[in-house]
UniProtKB/TrEMBL annotation:
Top-level lineage group: Bacteria
SUPFAM superfamilies: PilZ domain-like (SSF141371)
Official protein name in the record: PilZ domain-containing protein
GO molecular function: cyclic-di-GMP binding
Domain PilZ: 13-106
Amino acid sequence: MPHHRPLLRIEGRRAPRRPAHVEISYSDGTRLYSDYTRDISPGGVQIETSRQPPADPRLVVSFQLAGQPVKLQGTIRWIRRDGLAHRFGVEFVAMLPEDRERLDALMCALAPETPGREC
């Protein structure tokens, strides 16, 4: 029987996003997509794609941080068309504690002098 670890609930805090071009995969439960991020924050990510974003706002998102996979649950909060591309914002809603640590480390690397956060 697989061992299930508890997920951390992510509080609805607003945090500054930092530009980041990271390959990201996401699934709405029926299809797997692969695109790139435009920016990232401790609470979410902006994804740019050439296709229409998934209709179901609930996603499983995964990407690599420091050579380690990060997998988390997210919800599409907004969608914008930008010429031929689409951009959409995904709010992180739950993740494993070790994924939170890797994400925090990335945020420190992107913006080490962010007020209110120790790096």
